[in-house]
Structures are given as C-alpha cells and as structure tokens.
Write a structure and sequence with these properties.
Elements lengths: L3 E8 L5 E8 L4 E7 L9 E2 L11 H11 L3 H11 L1
C-alpha cells in the first residue's frame, strides 16, 4: 500500500526536474523535488529533504514549495495559463 498519494506533479519543460505535491495517509501534505538525467536510465531521484516537512493544508504546501524551489512559480503560472 502506498504511503503517499501524489496529488499534483509539476515538471520543467526540459523534463529534467519535477516537484510532486502529495498527501500522506494521515491527511497531511508534503512535497519533494526530483531530478533525472537523460544519460542515467535509473529515473528520477530526490534532490532535497523537503518531504519531511508537514503541512495541514494543500494551499500551504504549494506556497512553501514555490518559496523554496525557484523555478516552480513559473511552471505553475504556465499551467494556469493553459487551463
């Protein structure tokens, strides 16, 4: 059984970084930033230690992720424009 459920994932257009916003089984939220290298077939790996942070609201976790990951606000804005 999964310990977390990803509720939204944001990826750079280059495809080499992403941020997952997730909900834990206890109802709290968190996020993590990942990176993948084209020459490495092992896939995505975590960049930071963000996943240990606990948030009680989805809006709070998204705000924290935007404040801590410099490129994320531009990707979210682009997603909102395309919707």
């Amino acid at each position: 059984m999964a310990r977390v459920k990803v509720i939204v994932s944001y990826e750079l257009p280059s495809g080499d970084r992403c941020v997952d916003i997730f909900r834990r089984m206890d109802g709290t939220f968190g996020f993590e930033e990942y990176r993948r290298d084209a020459e490495d077939p092992s896939g995505w790996f975590a960049l930071g230690v963000y996943s240990d942070q606990i948030f009680h609201l989805e809006s709070a976790v998204t705000d924290a992720a935007v404040n801590q990951i410099t490129w994320l606000s531009d990707v979210i804005a682009a997603c909102n424009l395309s919707n």
